[in-house]
Amino acid sequence: MPARLHPFRTVLALVSALALSSALAAQTKQSNLDTERLLDISQREQKIYQQLAADPEYYSGDDLERHLNELIFSYRTYLAENPDDLSALILYGKLLRRIGKNDEAFKAFLRADELDPQIAVVKQQIGNHLAETGKGKAALTFTLNAITLEPEVPAYHYALGEILYTFREPFIEQAVFSRDALDREMLKAFQTAVRLEPDNFNAQMRLGEAYYDLASPDWKAALLHWNKVRKDSPNDDLLRRQILDLHKVRVLCKLGRSEEATALAATIVQPSLQQSKQQVLDEIRVY
Questions:
Q1: To the nearest 10°, the Cα dihedral for 281, 282, 283, 286?
Q2: DSSP label of 283
Q3: Which residues in 234-249 are b (16+ Cβ under 10 Å) and which e?
Q4: Contact between residue 192 and residue 154 where contact means Cβ atoms under 8 Å apart
Q5: pLDDT one-digit tens code per residue, 196-249
Q6: pTM as predicted
Q7: Gap between the Cα atoms of 254 and 284, Å rounded
């Protein structure tokens, strides 16, 4: 025959269960309130960016500063009450980066990395800051970690290429890479960024220029690249097409095809490109 429950203990058990249930309900309610509060801050921030994108003159300087300070205060207040909220730390860090408070942003991202070392965008942001402050090897480590965590994000590969280019001399001096290995990995990084996001014109431009940055520039590969990008460019974007033509002029010059280069240069009529065009023409005369 089973032992009878002591009535007093039964009451205590019921009270404890009810208390736990109430606590969990309160915690869930608070969690929902926090989520809504963070979402509201984020939406206010996005609204500012959208208005600036639609009309860069929408805010006066003072008005924009006031709105940004209000956002900073909102994030700080929220994080004071929720110091381990990863989403808030990341959003706050990105805002600080946008307004140039990079040291404060770095601290936010370091805290986020402590809480969860498996978030690629946090690794990327830390890597960016380290690169900007001259810490090449540390920047390389964090950027490679970001790529390992999310290998299909083109921005991470682009960042890797820039780090390899920017710190190429110290990396070679410190035997982190041989020059051949560094050139190979830099080019691979930019090629991957383009493969993952072929419509990104900035990535296409940087890949073309990367062929110039090699220890032995690959002018033939550069010309093939510019021809392909030029072919895929919108017909109505004259400036873009003439920027690409200017690159082709330079590469044709380097390949010893001066007559072709001069003829193509004559078709470049955009006023904003005339100074650059003249520099390239001066190169042609040297050759």
A1: 130
A2: H
A3: eeeeeebbbbbbbbbb
A4: yes
A5: 999 999 999 999 999 999 999 999 999 999 999 999 998 889 999 999 999 999
A6: 0.83
A7: 8
